[in-house]
Amino acid sequence: MTRFFLTCLCLFTLFIVTGCDRDDEKILDIQTFTTPAGFDVWFVKDTSVPVLSTTFLFKGAGAVVLNEETQGLTQILSNMLDEGAGELDSTAFQKALLDDSIQMSFSASRDNFSGNLKTLSEKKERAFELLALALTEPRFDAEPLQRMINANLSRVRGNLTDPNWIAARITNDKAFEGHPYRLNSGGTLSSLPEITVEDLQDFTTDYLTQDRLIIGVAGDSTQKELSALIDKTFSKLPKAGVSPEIANIKLQNQGQAFHYPLDVPQSVVTMVLPGITRDNPDYYAFQVMNQIFGAGGFGARLTKSIREEQGLAYGIFSTLSRTEYAQILFITSSTKNESVGQLVESVKKEMGKIATNLVSADEMNDAKNYIVGSLPLSFTTTDAISGTLVALQEENLPTDYLNTFPDSIQAITLEDIRNIAAKMLVPEQIMTVIVGDAETLDSPVQTVSELENVR
Description:
By secondary structure, the protein is α+β, with helices and mostly antiparallel strands. It has helices at residues 11-16, 73-80, 90-99, 124-136, 142-159, 163-175, 197-207, 223-234, 283-295, 301-309, 340-356, 361-373, 382-394, 401-410, 414-424; strands spanning 31-34, 40-45, 51-58, 103-108, 113-120, 213-219, 257-261, 266-274, 316-322, 327-336, 431-436, 446-447. It folds into two domains: 11-234, Cytochrome Bc1 Complex, Chain A, domain 1 (2-Layer Sandwich); 257-374 and 399-447, Cytochrome Bc1 Complex, Chain A, domain 1.
């Protein structure tokens, strides 16, 4: 989920689509309460349909806590928790979910381990009972474990010829060199077959603990009902586990370019810059600037220059990735092998323009209006709402954040946009990854002959 899943993609996406002018009306009427067992819960009540969605997250229980030998462990765990629990084997557990129309899913990101439970209101007791079994009495039987390992091995093998996946893999290796983020959260061809039942059991004991838990609920219920269900479900988890020390990391290999030769018609180009933290005073200015620069789709400057004016690529986007220990700005595209150098130089030129000259008032207003005025599509389901409640808590944001966010965006000035662009869009800081049969760039390029954390 990342930082929270709904990574993702990103918490900000959930926020920007809700910024329509609502006067003083709350975008979400968030209730907060603490259960008798001490679990803090954020809740949005909605009785319009008899559905209840619960999203939960174990903060800091993601792939970042793994090592070279255990790469892929959290991925396999997310696959296995609904493959049998208690007296129910895999088939019986899946049947129990199906019989009562219960949806249960788990997800592992770099930073966190999370899950979602969706049920009809009248079946919520049974749904939480099955969730409690999955979290506290998982079976990890041999047959489904091997099945999930095999499925993930097939996924990795299938990705070995995918230039976009290869580019992402090299980007992680080089951008986070020396840090756990460089590892392959989905597992490697050598690590996946070595994952054991004991590994899964140890991880659940050490990391799926009460002290890491964040809970968000949306739908047809009451605080009283939820308190009882949540206490019964999560009180059996260990109260606390291990807490490894993990350092923050800045973008590594700044100013360097890496090329992985691959016989494909187009090269995948990834340009990486240092990002910005959520608590940085310039964060809102960055969001408006990035909307104008590269995040705004067909209206963004990168698209107009690279696609419309020069015909170098079908699409090009700039995206901020914020994780617990690193913030990275990605610029991604694909182009003809012979055009890679021209594309890279054109991006740098656009960086210089927005960092030197004021954008137009129309550009700024269009970006602001899009950010705060898009239709609230992300809040049309209980799943989206419960996910957002968890995301807000994970980011340590207040319950009124969604209501104050539009004003923070509207307060940004033309000078703010230019200033943050000058701070962040620095060509000398770019780390570039190219996958394909690209011609040599003007700057020195290091050839990558072997993918790390894959085999």
